[in-house]
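Thread: quick sanity check before group meeting

JM: Hey all, I'm pulling together slides for Thursday and realized we never actually wrote out the predicted structure for the chain we discussed last week. Dropping the sequence here so it's in one place. If anyone has concerns about the input, flag it before I start.
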Amino acid sequence: MATPEPKRGDPIAELVESLLLELGEDPARQGLKATPDRVSRALRELTDGYGVKPEEVIADAVFDQDYDEMVVVKDIAFYSLCEHHMLPFFGQVHVGYLPKGKVVGLSKIPRLVEVFSHRLQIQEQLTREIAEALNVTLAPKGVGVVVEARHLCMEMRGVEAPGGHMMTSCMLGTFRRDPRTRAEFLDLVRRRS
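JM (edit): ok, ran it. Output follows.
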């Protein structure tokens, strides 16, 4: 996703300049002169998932395939912004599905993760959105998604507890109904490459 250059009169840059003033900073000092534009570009890049429809990301890479064993893509790195404090949370996503006559191109799963993580989010919602998008687009027998993340809103402020990881999962179809399928997926996720 290309990040647009800030425009003259960019409202985000103007807000950042006001924020700097409110914090007691001088936006005209050398180190901060370009900060409002840089912050604007960064925020636009980190939230560029709003303009993308997940089904369009996957649609051109769904292929008919007679394959019915589990497909797992794990250790997909992601970065997102917490919708409560707009501070980063980041980690890894593990995705598995049981095909039912259709598979998706390998690169589309990380791309799907990127689309949803480039929105203001909470981890629970991110996990569910990835699973539901794959479920709707592929109509597989089942989908499983596990997300492991560190949250800087917890590490840098409030409780200031560094190093804690949050884990969330969403299991749909066979992954929810069949304990053996769920166990196989979770075992594959736990294995280190």
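AS: nice. The chain has a mean pLDDT of 93. Residues 77 and 92 are 5 Å apart (CA to CA).
JM: adding both to the slides.
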